[in-house]
């Protein structure tokens, strides 16, 4: 890899042309190479080299994920065999992984090229889904088909049977994924600094009814029981198997499987705290004040000063 090359990972449907233009303009001025998967060649200008999808990450020094959390997860999965730093550019809604807004992108690219950033290491779930090997950075879920019964599955940890579930969905998540589907199903928030796996049932009707937190060293096996309704298996929200009525999902925890670029870790954490507060964790007024732009904080401080005597 002679020249510094960035691989572009694009949101599949959103218009990301404005962000692509910023990246291409920067790359031309810096004499950097750009690559994108061949399927997206019609979405990028000529300087961007199209490559087979499974070669983009391997041929790049770093990846730029342009979209939301789903795009970031896709970029991390694409580089799981040889992890590369992934910088997330926000062109989405409520995202927990992405950090950079489009106006801040040129400066972020300068810092990326200069290696002036920290790396946030992410674990993944290495899963055997009925014989197919897949990875998930947020979660893997067994989900019932509406009107066709329920998820009915047993739980085994290191080959020791622990019980069964009868529920609408069964979610196995990483600490990063604990803020996603697992959280919506009533699971706990797990610190990203913790190595753990969470198994959370959604709308349980029988069997295990609470979230279970397991060690990263343990192997988890969920096996459909006879009489289970047809189940879809989702990996990071993508359906990878549909209408299964038998089979098993085996899950192992893998550390340091993904590298996320952080330019301002403290500010990123504060923004995520605010996003969580919008969901279910209300902040104190002084914490909300700290998240305001500095100019607004100064205005509020002036207004609250006592009048001169």
UniProtKB/TrEMBL annotation:
Q: Do you know which Pfam families this protein is assigned to?
A: NAD_kinase, NAD_kinase_C
**Where do the annotations place NAD(+) binding?**
69-70, 138-139, 166, 168, 203
BP GO terms, sorted: NAD+ metabolic process; NADP+ biosynthetic process
Q: Which GO terms describe its molecular function?
A: ATP binding; metal ion binding; NAD binding; NAD+ kinase activity
Q: Which residues form the active site?
A: 69 (proton acceptor)
State its cofactor: a divalent metal cation
The entry's function note states: Involved in the regulation of the intracellular balance of NAD and NADP, and is a key enzyme in the biosynthesis of NADP. Catalyzes specifically the phosphorylation on 2'-hydroxyl of the adenosine moiety of NAD to yield NADP.
Q: What's the protein name?
A: NAD kinase
**What's the source species for this entry?**
Micromonospora deserti
